[in-house]
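Methods — Computational structure assignment.
A single polypeptide chain was analysed. Its primary sequence is given first, followed by the predicted tertiary structure written as structure tokens.
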Amino acid sequence: MKKEYKELKSYLMLWSTQSLSTLGSGMTSYALVLWLYLQSGSALKTALLSICSYTPYVIMSIFAGALSDRWNKKRTMLICDLIAAFSTITVFILIRTDSLRIGHLYLLNAINGLMNTVQQPASEIATTLLIPKKYYQKTSGLRSFSQSLNSILTPILATMIFSFAGIDFVIAVDLITFVVAFLTLWLFISIPEKEYKEKKKENLLTSAYTGLKWLKHNPLILNLILFLASINLVASAYNAALPAMILSKSNGGETVLGAVNSCVGIATLCGSIFVMLFPAPKDRVKMICVSLFISMSTENFMLAFGNTPLIWCIAAILGWIMIPFMSANMDVIFRNTIPLNMQGRVYSCRNTLQFFTIPVGYLLGGFLVDKVCEPFMTVQSKETLLVRFFGEEKGSGAAMLFFIMGIVGVMICVIFSLILRSKINSQKPS
């Protein structure tokens, strides 16, 4: 045990403090969603917060990995964190001076998204450099554990602090967690920089092309990424529709939304524990497909037809308990398959391909709720099947959208399961 701790000491320090900072950032993001929806009552305007965060991430990510392959990983993470912190401080000042406008949030979220774009591949490489290969499965479970714990605590703490002390206090807590993480990384963690022998230094375009070329010659990895991209389209539409449904319903509200989101965290926490306790599966690709099928075939339909907070909470648990299995096995496949000197470039290409559907999904989800589904449900008579299934009050349109997303999600899982199986069979020696 002592040997294991010694080998993982630097990673554990990085993991714990960065997780704390992520909790703070998540609380701010959650509180801003509450603040904006309560101010505007618009799913589309609220979804634009996430769109502004993800758009620069998607556009620039393909180049960020090339930079992270050549830049000092620790320095890159520190600078990006510092710039993101300054944007959060700006939000705090604007709130304290009663000057905060929706446009400010969109701009500052875009800046944070850009910083995350550059930092994320550097962080991925740093993690690989700090972890011995034999601990990949265990540390993947730890990462899922922290993400799950944050998912539980974020809505609880954010809702509580937002309700009793205001959004400015939420941001103050976020800044404190940032200081702890920043100082720990700066003063106590040494990230090794591995030197790679290359005939000539590639420019950014060439490096990005190299990452795409590697993916082209590794169709299994490419199709896994496209699978996740398709799922992210549904998941981001889900994220856009969930506040609109729960905050609008008479038996919903901020507390119920916090409870449902906390159940998401509880489910992923349990899943993360199972990942660490269970032996590694023989077929990681099959585990990924099964996990996502269970998620897509449960939560969306229960949210569509259920009309009580209890059912919504159960739906969240069933929809998310298998996600850590997907994440851990995807992580292991990537780290074992992608060469270390290519990880920055390949991860950045993955980010562009896998996450470009997220702003699209948020935009689509917000638009469909505000402009299509809700208006459509308001003109339905009480005797129609749609009203019996999805309700008649505001939020029924979002419920109908969950039903549509459930069908689409299941179809995606079935189609990609067949594609991935064919790719695996084609790679087997005759």
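Note: The chain has one domain: 2-186+203-427.
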